[in-house]
Specification:
The protein has 324 residues and is mainly α. Helix 13 packs across helix 14. The C terminus is likely disordered. The chain contains 15 helices and no strands. It has one domain: ABC transporter involved in vitamin B12 uptake, BtuC (Orthogonal Bundle), CATH 1.10.3470. It is 76% helix and 0% strand.
Length: 324
């Protein structure tokens, strides 16, 4: 009972978290001129926490997580263009399609070592990239999927050019997914995932079904990544081969380097820092912004490596305090 109470206490929202999320939800209205970048941050933050679920909590490395992001984006776009423009239906379809792909991929990801997983996940993303390129009659090929028009959200809220509705939509989805994942990682199921991450052989020896746990969490993470891709397509009205590109998988990995792995806020904070720096630096030095971003990452790793550990240590303390 004490362990269950501790997990339940850790999953409860603290006062500062409630204030943080209220501020985030109010930001598109308080900063209407920045609604578009707020929408981008919410989408990539959702993408980042989906990767953190398998990397930070389960120890599964992946260099092709953009495969599920792209699948979700194209699924939502094709549904809106040919069948139904309802955003929530497209979001659900994207989650299901990407989760099914994740379940299929989990059969290969569970085999081999970390290097093998990196190559397999990267290869899967490259295959989907080439398929989307060749099936131009369906996906638009190199020109992208154009003419995607979304209907009003909940039948009432039209997507405006300033991105306020889009930002509120993406932030709401991010919050709901965050709350679900918070309960997942602070449950006995989440505890078994972290046991597998720390020592897979020991987890097997105490009776944890390692293969089924990893397959299920990989499927869940793929579905969430697909939702992030769907949000991008729905809020921009366009889907292109860029959704599958390796730079998306690399960027989301960098966000977790900035924010830290093994705590869900790491993906959110990392996404915010990454996108804001990208926006500011590209305005200051359009040709060399990647240099300054790379320099920041090098300094962060070499000089401020403790910043990657401190959030997790603080989070562990907050869990202990919540249990008390």
């Amino acid at each position: 009972m004490k362990a269950q109470d501790a997990l339940l206490g850790a999953s409860r929202m603290k006062a500062w978290e409630v204030a943080l999320w209220l501020a985030l939800l109010a930001s598109p209205l308080a900063l209407p001129t920045h609604a578009l970048i707020i929408n981008e941050i919410a989408i990539v933050a959702l993408f980042a926490i989906s990767l953190d679920l398998i990397l930070g909590y389960s120890g599964i490395v992946s260099l092709g997580h953009a495969a599920f992001f792209g699948l979700g984006g194209y699924a939502a776009g094709l549904l809106a263009k040919h069948i139904s423009p309802d955003p929530l239906t497209g979001l659900l379809l994207a989650a299901v399609v990407s989760a099914l792909a994740g379940a299929l991929m989990s059969l290969t990801v569970l085999r081999g070592n970390d290097l093998t997983r990196l190559m397999v996940t990267l290869g899967f993303a490259l295959i989907l990239y080439e398929l989307a390129n060749k099936l131009d009659w369906l996906t638009g090929g190199a020109d992208g999927l154009q003419g995607v028009t979304m209907g009003p959200l909940l039948g009432r809220f039209e997507f405006d050019l300033f991105g306020r509705t889009a930002a509120l939509y993406s932030l709401t989805v991010l919050l709901l997914v965050f709350l679900v994942l918070r309960r997942v990682v602070h449950s006995p199921y989440g505890a078994t995932l972290m046991a597998i991450r720390d020592n897979r052989l020991r987890a097997m020896s105490i009776g944890i079904p390692v293969a089924s746990r990893l397959a299920s969490v990989y499927t869940l993470a793929a579905g969430i990544a697909g939702m992030a891709g769907a949000l991008l397509t729905q809020t921009t009205g366009f889907a292109s081969l860029d959704l599958f590109d390796i730079h998306r998988s690399a960027d989301v990995m960098l966000m977790l380097v900035i924010g830290g792995t093994g705590w869900l806020y790491g993906g959110i904070f990392g996404a915010a820092v990454f996108k804001v720096m990208q926006d500011v630096l590209s305005n200051i030095t359009p040709q060399y912004w990647t240099f300054w971003l790379g320099l920041f990452l090098v300094v962060l790793v070499l000089v401020g490596r403790e910043r990657l550990v401190r959030p997790r240590s603080w989070f562990a303390r907050s869990k202990t305090e919540g249990a008390r």
